[in-house]
Amino acid sequence: MGQLEYAWAYAGRLGFAWASMGWIGSTCPVAACWFESTRFGRFPSFPWVIDFHGSSKYYPKIKRKEKEMRILMVGLDNSGKTTIVLKINGEDTSIISPTLGFNIKTIKYQKYLLNIWDVGGQKTIRSYWRNYFEQTDGLVWVVDSSDIRRLDDCRMELVNLLKEERLSGASLLVLANKQDIQGALKPTEIAEVLNLSSTDKTRHWRIVGCSAYTGEGLFQGLDWLVQDIASRIYLID
């Protein structure tokens, strides 16, 4: 197994300490790791929301020492994942290059630390997604609502993800991105194409229409995700 394959196989399971010491960067050149902690502003919320709350009995609450959440953001390539992460963090989104590995950003949001793993969506690297499933609290699936020809591919990839046992306890947020583009499907239409109504009844999920370009809908979705995760894994002080 070469260095690049070795890094891919273990990067998702390593803690932030190793990554911050440069292990990932030196071992896997395509893995760009960002570690920042900052507060960010808010944008108007989008009006289109569909959600489902499964049985909370499936997710026993536990007391964690530190209020951190691990969020895995995935989706097909060019769906807008990196732009979304930068936008919610108040960063420049004028120049975005495809994510060939993964980016990690740690953000202070409300009273929690969100460790967001933004993983590339190119077809050639989707098989590596499974290396990032461990200890995931929230799964964000980003959809390019204007890319109608690839929606079947999008649906199949999501179906495969939701079969993963290591993601069975994760809250699911589907972001129907690029709502600012003319001809983009509405969240209700995306939900139908993805067949979200057939999602395991024990899973909490929500679909929100958004635009990474304008910022609309992003915080509406993030607010729901954070609160849903918190209600499952943190005891009330």
UniProtKB/TrEMBL annotation:
The record lists Mg(2+) as bound by 82, 99
Q: Which positions bind GTP? A: 75-82, 121, 177-180
InterPro entries linked to this entry: Arl2 (IPR045873), ARL2/3 (IPR044612), P-loop_NTPase (IPR027417), Small_GTP-bd (IPR005225), Small_GTPase_ARF/SAR (IPR006689)
Respond yes or no to whether keyword Magnesium is given for this record. yes
Q: Specify whether Lipoprotein is a keyword of the entry.
A: yes
Molecular function, one GO term? metal ion binding
Q: Which UniProt keywords apply?
A: GTP-binding, Lipoprotein, Magnesium, Metal-binding, Myristate, Nucleotide-binding
Q: Which Gene3D superfamilies match?
A: P-loop containing nucleotide triphosphate hydrolases
NCBIfam families named in the record: small_GTP (TIGR00231)
Say which family it is in.
Belongs to the small GTPase superfamily. Arf family.
Task: State the protein's name.
Answer: ADP-ribosylation factor-like protein 2
Source organism? Vanilla planifolia
Where is the organism placed in the taxonomic lineage, from the top? Eukaryota, Viridiplantae, Streptophyta, Embryophyta, Tracheophyta
